[in-house]
Amino acid sequence: MKIIRLNLKERSYPIYIEDGSISKCGCILKKLNIGKDAVIITNHKLKKILAGKVKKSLVKHNLSYKFYTVPDSEKAKSFQSCLNLIDKISKYDNRKQIFLIALGGGVIGDLTGFVASIYKRGTPYIQIPTTLLAQIDSAIGGKTAIDLPAAKNLVGAFHQPKTVIVDPKILKTLPKRQLTSGLSEVIKYAVIKDKALFSFLNKNHKKILSLNKSAIELIERKCITIKSKIVEEDEQEKKGIRTILNFGHTVGHALESAGGYKRYNHGEAIGLGMVCASEIAFNLKLLSRENLNKIINTIKLFRLPHKIKGINLSKIIPSLIKDKKFIRAKNRFVLPTVIGKVKVIKDIPEVVIRKAILKHILPN
Ligand SMILES: NC(=O)c1ccc[n+]([C@@H]2O[C@H](COP(=O)([O-])OP(=O)(O)OC[C@H]3O[C@@H](n4cnc5c(N)ncnc54)[C@H](O)[C@@H]3O)[C@@H](O)[C@H]2O)c1
Ligand SMILES: [Zn+2]
Question: Given phi > 0 = left and psi -120 to 50 = alpha, else beta, which region is 342?
């Protein structure tokens, strides 16, 4: 089994990557020794698909289990579901040694991590991510959050999991649109940090889209290594290093919000955000036309949208200004300079941003 260690002193943890690793969760947890009673947070759909394997492995290693399900949508990242869970967990937690398991995508991972961060001032939890996005991104690094009506992820905490169990085989049941959404973040990692990964993506897109075992394992290993290193250097996003993970996210978040979180899912919006950020970099003469085209072509190759449809600039700009990355009305963009390197640029004139976005909006 491939193990990547995320080193954060006493908060360090192993990340296991292997086809079928979900069936070894009991063994991994027994060795971790973080508790005897697992509280598994998931949704109905995933419980049907995965509960059997998890239960079997926990029981085999003398660990007890209890499942709690939450609704299958971003709505689960709310104060209400957080309170419901804490209420149920506290009633169940009688003379037990509980720990939480997030069994799901980024929504369940963020919610479970947040509940774990506040229940008894911090309870151990582990992540078993089930979407590509969660396996390479959200399950790693300890950012937990719930949403408020005013904005997504507004309430949260840093709380590192005790381990992350990545089973690429689980992705077989993932809807295609969720898969390509995760691939958008893979492209992000390649552009910000890894030219070789970028070439690999371009050469192996068919294998990756058809979930070829070795291709998926390779991209997961590479992305998880990049994310882990960045988190090790800047756990709480205080040194500006973790910021580079926001490539594509400034315009991306504005598109998600301007589209009412319906038109584009996260990965699709981030793909479009990467197109716009790269266009800004080209306009500022930081990125060559050749590399701009390479980035856009890779996004196309993975069947992600590369042109903004049905959202006007007049809706995008106000959402952009509200973004938390715009500190005191000053903007901040992560811009690629070559494939594998980015720079954080502040105070880009609004006209440059408008022009770049406009170039990639399809006329009605
Ligand atoms: N904490 C972080 O660092 C971080 C980073 C990026 C994103 N996020 C958060 O992650 C969330 C998005 O996560 P997501 O893209 O994983 O979406 P998601 O959790 O909503 O999952 C997407 C859909 O896929 C289904 N699904 C999940 N795994 C499946 C499987 N194996 N088979 C079949 N269906 C499956 C889910 O039930 C859901 O309907 C957002 O809330 C975002 O804010 C957090
Ligand atoms: Zn993202």
Answer: beta
User: Hey, which residues are catalytic here?
Assistant: 121, 143, 185, 227, 237, 242, 246, 249, 253, 266
Residues 145, 24: Cα–Cα separation, whole Å: 28
The helix/strand/coil state of 250 is helix
pLDDT confidence band for 319 (50 / 70 / 90): confident
For tokens 């006209």, the residue is 351
Q: How many CA atoms lie within 13 A of 195 on its CB side?
A: 8
45 lines ligand 1 (CB under 6 A): yes
Measure 247 CA to ligand 2 centroid, in angstroms: 9
Q: Find out whether the beta carbon of 43 lies less than 6 Å from any atom of ligand 1.
A: yes
Could you read off the pLDDT of 245-294 as tens digits, one per residue?
999 999 999 999 898 888 999 999 999 999 999 999 999 999 999 999 99
* pTM score, whole prediction: 0.96
Ligand lying nearest the CA atom of residue 47 = 1
Residue with the nearest Cα to atom 10 of ligand 1?
Answer: 106
Q: Which burial class, exposed, middle or buried, applies to 182 when counting CB atoms under 10 A from its CB (0-12, 13-18, 19+)?
A: buried
Residue-wise pLDDT for 145-167, tens only, equals 999 988 889 999 999 999 999 99
What Å distances lie between residue 219 and 177, 204, 245, CA to CA?
Answer: 18, 10, 16
Please tell me the number of the ligand nearest to residue 182's CA: 1
Contact 207, 357 (CB under 8 A): no
Least reliable range by pLDDT among 19-28, 47-56, 114-123, 327-336: 327-336
Please check the confidence at residue 327 and state whether its pLDDT lies above 80. Answer: no
Distance 107 CA to ligand 1 centre (A): 5
